[in-house]
């Protein structure tokens, strides 16, 4: 099995996972940071909004954690991968059960470090803590399973991603590469 399709699929995962930003309930800068991350508006101005939210706004605990995830998403889209990883790690240190931090970190680790073992653990954590976008976690885990040689696990996870997001073409595209044969 060639690894190229898996790594190409990993590149597709980044924009999708990044849309799984953490919702900020309040108003003001943190809300604007969330909206920029959710709308895929990565720019120096969006990053500055997130920075100011963290530095200047009195945020609830949940909003602070979410703002770090959202800033990480914006940094990842701006190709500041070390900064994005630092934000996801900070969110996880603050709240070890923050699923969107695990999801987005898993996608970034898979894309930039090609560390499928770590990425699989991160996707598992995102699912364990009930990410808002489980289809992306299953898709990412499918890629890691395929890279590990666990083709049955990859097939099952691509199928689950497709089931959860029936209008998302990527899992269906990946499923076309599989054929199932009965033994014997």
TrEMBL record:
User: Where in the sequence is the signal peptide annotated?
Assistant: 1-20
**What are the alphabetically sorted keywords of the record?**
Repeat, Signal, TPR repeat
Keyword ATP-binding appears in the UniProt entry? no
TPR repeats at which positions?
65-98
| SUPFAM superfamilies given in the database record | TPR-like
Q: Which Gene3D superfamilies match?
A: Tetratricopeptide repeat domain
Family matches, as Pfam families = TPR_11
Domain of life from the UniProt record = Bacteria
Protein's UniProt keywords contain Repeat = yes
* Record PANTHER family: TETRATRICOPEPTIDE REPEAT PROTEIN 6 (PTHR44858), UDP-N-ACETYLGLUCOSAMINE--PEPTIDE N-ACETYLGLUCOSAMINYLTRANSFERASE SPINDLY-RELATED (PTHR44858:SF1)
The protein depicted here goes by the name Uncharacterized protein
Which species expresses this protein natively? Answer: Sphingomonas changbaiensis NBRC 104936
What does UniProt list as this organism's lineage? Bacteria, Pseudomonadati, Pseudomonadota, Alphaproteobacteria, Sphingomonadales
